[in-house]
Design goal:
Length: about 280
C-alpha cells in the first residue's frame, strides 16, 4: 500500500562492550506501540540498518525513536532516497566530553548525533596552545583519553569526524563533517596522595571495594555516563552493584578526615548479572 512507509534506523555505540537496553521508557517509539522491533543489544561502533520500522503515513506522518534521552525522527517529508552515499552527515547534537580534566583520570567523548548516512566516526583529541589555537595530540584517536603531565594547565577538546561512505572511500565531491566539542577547563594535577582504587568484578550483584590507604574516610559511590556522574547513595568502603548500575561506569570519591577529596578512576562498564 502506498501509505505504508518503511524507515531504517541506525545507531552508534562508543562503548567497548555490548550494552543492554530493554524496550521500555528509555528505549521506545512514539507514536506507540513503544515496541517496534527495535534492538535491545547495542554493539560497539557504527551499526547501519540496525532495524526497520513500518508505519502508516495517514495515521502518523513521522515516527520517533527515543533512546536514553536522545531522539531521532523518520518521516514522510524526509524520504530515505534523499540521503546519498556522498552526502555530508548533518549534525543534530554537538559532541561533548565527560569526566574530570585531571592528569591520570580518563576522559570520554560523546560523539553527538548526525543525520544522514554515517559510515564511520573518528576522534582526535586536541590540546590548546598558548595562542588559543589547537594542536592534535599524537595517537589520541580513541573515544577515551587520559590526560598526561604534558596536558597540565591546558584545556582539551575532541574533534569528531563523521564520514559518509563516499568521503571514507575518497569519492570526488564527497565530504566528511567535522565538529569540535566545547573545551574542558584546564587540566589539573592530582594531589600528591595516591587516588583511591576500585577492585572487584563490574557485574550486577558483585561487590566493589575501595582502597584508600590508612586512616578514617568517608565514601561516595557514583555511577557515571559519558558526560556526568551521580551519587548512588553508597557510603561504605564497599558497594554491591545493582541493576541500576548496568551500562554505567563506577567511581568512588573518598574524603579523609581533614584532608582533600580524592576521586578514583572510573571502572569498566557494568554488565548485567549472569544467569545460569
Amino acid at each position: 500500500m502506498d501509505n505504508i512507509v518503511s524507515a531504517t534506523f541506525n545507531y552508534y555505540s562508543p562503548y567497548d562492550d555490548v550494552v543492554v537496553e530493554d524496550v521500555g521508557q528509555d528505549n521506545s517509539f512514539t507514536p506507540g506501540p513503544s515496541d517496534q522491533g527495535q534492538t535491545t543489544l547495542f554493539f560497539p561502533g557504527v551499526n547501519l540498518d540496525a532495524f526497520e520500522v513500518s508505519f502508516s503515513s495517514f495515521v502518523a506522518p513521522s515516527i520517533t525513536w527515543q533512546l536514553n534521552g536522545m531522539t531521532t525522527t523518520a518521516g514522510t517529508t524526509q524520504p530515505e532516497c534523499t540521503i546519498t552515499a556522498d552526502g555530508s552527515p548533518q549534525q543534530e547534537d554537538a559532541p561533548a566530553i565527560g569526566g574530570t580534566p585531571l592528569v591520570g583520570s580518563r576522559l570520554a567523548a560523546y560523539p553527538g548525533l548526525f543525520k544522514g548516512w554515517v559510515y564511520r566516526i573518528g576522534f582526535q583529541w586536541q590540546r590548546q596552545n598558548p595562542d588559543t589555537t589547537w594542536s592534535d595530540i599524537g595517537g589520541a584517536t580513541a573515544f577515551t583519553y587520559t590526560p598526561t603531565t604534558g596536558d597540565a594547565g591546558k584545556a582539551l577538546r575532541v574533534e569528531v569526524k563523521a564520514d559518509s561512505p563516499g568521503s571514507y572511500r575518497g569519492h570526488p565531491g564527497a565530504f566528511a563533517t567535522i565538529v569540535d566539542s566545547s573545551p574542558t577547563s584546564p587540566v589539573a594535577t592530582p594531589a600528591a596522595a595516591p587516588l583511591p582504587k576500585i577492585s572487584g568484578l563490574t557485574i550486577a550483584g558483585q561487590t566493589l571495594k575501595a582502597s584508600a590507604g590508612t586512616g578514617t574516610f568517608s565514601y561516595d559511590w557514583q555511577r557515571c555516563t559519558l558526560t556526568a556522574c551521580t551519587p548512588t547513595g553508597g557510603t561504605g568502603a564497599s558497594y554491591v552493584l545493582t541493576n541500576a548500575d548496568v551500562a554505567h561506569f563506577m567511581r568512588v570519591a573518598v574524603t579523609p578526615t581533614g584532608g582533600p577529596q580524592g576521586v578514583s578512576a572510573e571502572t569498566t562498564l557494568v554488565l548485567p548479572r549472569l544467569h545460569h
